[in-house]
Amino acid sequence: MTDFLPLEHLVAACHWIGGKGWAPATGGNMSVRQDAEYCLLSASGKDKGSLTRDDFIQVEIATNAVPSGRTPSAETGLHTLIYRLFPQAGAVLHTHTVNSTVLSRVEKGDALLLSGYEMQKTLAGQQTHLNTIAIPLFDNDQDMTALAQRIEAFAAATPLQYGFLLRGHGLTCWGKDVNEARRHLEGLEFLFECELQRRLLEAK
Ligand SMILES: CSC[C@@H](O)[C@@H](O)C(=O)COP(=O)(O)O
Ligand SMILES: [Zn+2]
Fold first, then answer.
1. pLDDT tens digits, one per residue of 61-82
2. Is 96 marked as a binding-site residue?
3. Which ligand is nearest to the Cα of residue 29, counting in written order?
4. Domain range spanning residue 126?
5. What's the cofactor (predicted)?
6. Which DSSP string do the residues of the chain spell out, in sequence order?
7. Which residue from 50, 71, 73, 165 has its CB within 8 A of the most atoms of ligand 1, so it is best to mutate?
8. ipTM for the whole complex
9. What is the reported pTM?
10. CATH number of 14's domain
11. How many distinct structural domains can be found in the chain?
């Protein structure tokens, strides 16, 4: 892989995610946009906390085609969907945290609603804790084509922003570049932790 600074940023983000314990036991996947046509996606089945730049595989955004014949993430179709929906998206991060896994099961609706938190302002364009942010929540599916189609159909009616949750699975979020995707990931994870604790305490 030739010099490509965003990939350096993504590798650093993967190590940071690994250090946080947010991609346990090979869970999670990460990608960065190369240009309008291609992205670089993490190889399938690797420990995402110790990836190197050689572990990223070029994938065609429009078709999911892999010129090298290597095997990128099983969840490639969700990354390329985000790049297709949002030409301005520069990086996508998918993590498996305890908070996102548990909260996405406890919440039975089709969105996780967040309001009243100052940290909502970590999300691009948010300027007040008074807004209600809806993070869409989709039932998990091992059929990635079907899952991507379901998310795409939802997005046609309700544009996605920041990220979405897969029930019992984890968070997929993005940003205009790796730094913004990292901020969205860290901000959302903070909000999930707060929301889980709030629900636990208020249930008593
Ligand atoms: C380790 S089980 C989780 C996988 O099924 C999947 O959800 C995941 O996030 C990692 O898959 P991968 O193909 O390595 O990108
Ligand atoms: Zn996953």
1. 999 999 999 999 999 999 999 9
2. yes
3. 1
4. 5-202
5. Zn(2+)
6. ----HHHHHHHHHHHHHHHHT-SGGG--EEEEE-SSSEEEEEBTTS-GGG--GGGEEEEETTT---TT---B-TTHHHHHHHHHH-TT--EEEEE--HHHHHHHHH--SSEEEEES-GGGGGSTT---TTSEEEEEEE---S-HHHHHHHHHHHHHHS---SEEEETTTEEEEEESSHHHHHHHHHHHHHHHHHHHHHHHHHT-
7. 73
8. 0.98
9. 0.98
10. 3.40.225.10
11. 1
